[in-house]
Request: fold
Amino acid sequence: MKRSRTFLPILKETPAEAKIVSHQLMLRAGLIRQTSSGIYAWLPLGLRVLKRIEQIVREEMNRAGAIEMLMPTIQSADLWRESGRYDDYGKEMLRITDRHDRDLLYGPTNEEMITDIFKGFVKSYKDLPKNLYHIQWKFRDEIRPRFGVMRGREFLMKDAYSFDLDEAGARASYNRMFLAYLNAFARMGLKAVPMRADTGPIGGDLSHEFIILAETGESAVFCHADLVDMPPPGLDLDFDADLQLLVDQRTALYAATDEMHDEAEFAHIPADKQLSARGIEVGHIFYFGEKYSKAMNAAVVGPDGAERFVHMGSYGVGISRLLGGIIEASHDDNGIIWPQSVAPFDVGLMGLNIDKPGVAEACEDLYAKLQAAGLEVFFDDTGERPGSKFATCDLIGLPWRVVVGPKGLDKGVVELKCRKTGEVEELTPEAALKKLIQTRATI
Ligand SMILES: Nc1ncnc2c1ncn2[C@@H]1O[C@H](COP(=O)(O)OP(=O)(O)O)[C@@H](O)[C@H]1O
Ligand SMILES: [Mg+2]
Reply:
């Protein structure tokens, strides 16, 4: 993408309304723009990151055997009357009336709708287990939308729903999601800790929140420090195997959110390992058994010929919140530091004194070759001052920067800089190309 042809509205000043660094940087780097309270337009750069995060989550869901579909944003109130949640949900639900005076709502979550779809088709235990998910916008009329995309009113969520014949099956489904989440967050460069959590309005008795530690996090959390650096299960995990042991290893150490915190249990952790911190909830998984299947009559015939209600779980990831979470975890004074797996572009290509002989040509040549190799390139082909180009490249957080200038070209080299380490090296354009291709191959 050439800068001269894209839409990148960088802000010079830090907007006063933004209280936390991720929100400030998302506005300054031209990722989002608020259109009304808690509702954001995704500008081109922000959309690129959003799509990449979405894709990582999609890949890890698919790997774990979940099946993608897409449900609408608008739902019928009748479905929610069946489950009894229409009245329970309260003011967070945006209720809508259509021209025929029918009650609709903008979906805050999809347990009812998916249960209704499921029961329309699945009648036998032979079709179980099933895990269906979608990645769709949600609306919750939050009383205090804040921190930008962290707590919006309209936000993008991946929500998956599992259906099993019995509790044992449902726990196996839960375990698959538990471990798939750890892989997905690790791929985004995040250390997410699963913590025992309250089930809230979803209901049920088994629940974990996936928390990334950050001072600006909304939740107070308590855990054993060793959990933070525990490696993810790995992408070669066999999701057909019994995963209980792997889950047990990760739930054996203490980790709980505020609502579930047990001071006495926490005190048993060696003092130097007691971590009391703040965190951002990026995912939340629930096992709630027959809560919705019973209320909405979703039953299947078991192997013995008897009908029984399916056991369900639901599994959410805050896709749009993750942008804020990743920035909170990865930035410096100059701007965002995107992990390459979610970066809007792999590399910023900067031409210095682009009007000097040979510079534009060398840039175009490298631009074409990088793109041909599958890299996403942000080519700053404008006539801006070098300092300003560099500042923009740092602000928008591209993992690599290649500078092509007349002095270097005389020596046959370009300058390659790593955003994360700050390391700079001079390389021939070919060597820089090779190195960048390698970085892309390893994510
Ligand atoms: N208002 C919001 N803005 C952005 N993301 C949200 C919001 N509410 C929930 N999420 C994301 O969706 C995930 C699933 O939501 P859920 O656990 O059902 O909501 P809550 O934690 O508010 O009860 C959360 O873990 C979070 O990452
Ligand atoms: Mg939650």
Notes: The longest helix spans residues 167-187. The two ends are 21 Å apart (CA to CA).
